[in-house]
Amino acid sequence: MKPIGTLKIRIASVSDLSTIQIIGRETYREHFPSIWSDDYLQEFLRQDFSKQSLQHSLSSPSHTWLIAQDTSDSVVGYAKLNWDRPEPIFNRVGTELQKIYFRSCTTGQGYGGALLEFIVDMAEKRSDMLWLDVLKSNLGAQRFYASRGFHAMGEIPFNTDISEIGMVVMARPLTVDKSFKPNPLRGSP
Prior knowledge:
The structure is a single chain. The protein is α+β, with helices and mostly antiparallel strands. It contains five helices and eight strands. The chain has helices spanning 17-31, 38-48, 51-59, 111-124, 139-146; strands at residues 2-4, 7-11, 63-69, 75-86, 93-102, 129-135, 151-156, 167-173. Strands 1-2-3-4-5-6-8-7 form an eight-stranded mixed β-sheet, sandwiched between helices. Strand 1 and strand 2 (7-11) form a beta hairpin. The chain is globular. The model has no long low-confidence stretch (mean pLDDT 89).
């Protein structure tokens, strides 16, 4: 377990399955209840955090799950990385930051930045780009990632059972690569 400030970060294993189920379902419900109907939200969480799905993902060398704990060893957040994944705009292969969530009661404590720093350090050893997608409506998250070197590359569709939201794909080069030039979003200067 590597401490970064007051946050302890460790790579999860299959023995952490129930911990990830709990924190994953809890944080998703905290952050995204308004984009799904109740029934579809429950179904999404049942599938995404099912025992079978998590066992496969936690065992796969294509994925790395991280668990973040505070100084009292309480789990406060988690992340999931997908290695060698093409981003959906230019099809460049990099490391996808698929999930990074914290309990809402931990907002403002610097945990997000600390976990992201850990992820960048980890990804730099295997990839020249870290990418993610974020809800188009989540301007706070877009500003957070932009302040940490991510650039918007474009938009992709994303729909739930009750709304059409869209996602912004953002990427951060991890090595000096002069060929990496993200396109600005439409309407951007």
